């Protein structure tokens, strides 16, 4: 979102594994008490959670648009973004994977992704153009790409998801 909107920024990596998770450091907890990435310092405030960050950027720097003007398309973008950011991605976070146990992590992550992608593929059949909703990059696309990367990380076969795969390749 920052790059698409032409906003200069400095990335400060937070390694989720090194040093037993740098997100647990006192310094990072001061930025985000949930001990999760991302966190963005901008305009004198710190914002955590991807969708909140993107919405703030959209409201304060409206061009290029990441949410369509049309209320129905905007709702579709938010629905897809929430499906990924709330319904699929958190279930593969390290904190969850630790709870399911080392021996179950791969199967768990694949099941979660397949369940989410089955729903997402069905949604995208009705909303997609070149991208998730129509022919302009939106917040939904910014959520899709990292989730597909996560699917690849967990060796998910993307063959059953031609719309997801096509959009991701385009992006």
UniProtKB/TrEMBL annotation:
<feature type="domain" description="GST C-terminal">
    <location>
        <begin position="70"/>
        <end position="171"/>
    </location>
</feature>
<dbReference type="InterPro" id="IPR004046">
    <property type="entry name" value="GST_C"/>
</dbReference>
<dbReference type="InterPro" id="IPR040079">
    <property type="entry name" value="Glutathione_S-Trfase"/>
</dbReference>
<dbReference type="InterPro" id="IPR036282">
    <property type="entry name" value="Glutathione-S-Trfase_C_sf"/>
</dbReference>
<dbReference type="GO" id="GO:0016034">
    <property type="term" value="F:maleylacetoacetate isomerase activity"/>
</dbReference>
<dbReference type="GO" id="GO:0006559">
    <property type="term" value="P:L-phenylalanine catabolic process"/>
</dbReference>
<protein>
    <recommendedName>
        <fullName>maleylacetoacetate isomerase</fullName>
        <ecNumber>5.2.1.2</ecNumber>
    </recommendedName>
</protein>
<comment type="pathway">
    <text>Amino-acid degradation; L-phenylalanine degradation; acetoacetate and fumarate from L-phenylalanine: step 5/6.</text>
</comment>
<dbReference type="InterPro" id="IPR005955">
    <property type="entry name" value="GST_Zeta"/>
</dbReference>
<comment type="similarity">
    <text>Belongs to the GST superfamily. Zeta family.</text>
</comment>
<dbReference type="GO" id="GO:0006572">
    <property type="term" value="P:L-tyrosine catabolic process"/>
</dbReference>
<dbReference type="GO" id="GO:0004364">
    <property type="term" value="F:glutathione transferase activity"/>
</dbReference>
<dbReference type="GO" id="GO:0006749">
    <property type="term" value="P:glutathione metabolic process"/>
</dbReference>
<keyword id="KW-0828">Tyrosine catabolism</keyword>
<keyword id="KW-0585">Phenylalanine catabolism</keyword>
<keyword id="KW-0808">Transferase</keyword>
<dbReference type="InterPro" id="IPR036249">
    <property type="entry name" value="Thioredoxin-like_sf"/>
</dbReference>
<dbReference type="Pfam" id="PF14497">
    <property type="entry name" value="GST_C_3"/>
</dbReference>
<feature type="domain" description="GST N-terminal">
    <location>
        <begin position="1"/>
        <end position="65"/>
    </location>
</feature>
<dbReference type="Pfam" id="PF13409">
    <property type="entry name" value="GST_N_2"/>
</dbReference>
<dbReference type="InterPro" id="IPR004045">
    <property type="entry name" value="Glutathione_S-Trfase_N"/>
</dbReference>
<dbReference type="InterPro" id="IPR034330">
    <property type="entry name" value="GST_Zeta_C"/>
</dbReference>
<dbReference type="GO" id="GO:0005739">
    <property type="term" value="C:mitochondrion"/>
</dbReference>
<dbReference type="InterPro" id="IPR010987">
    <property type="entry name" value="Glutathione-S-Trfase_C-like"/>
</dbReference>
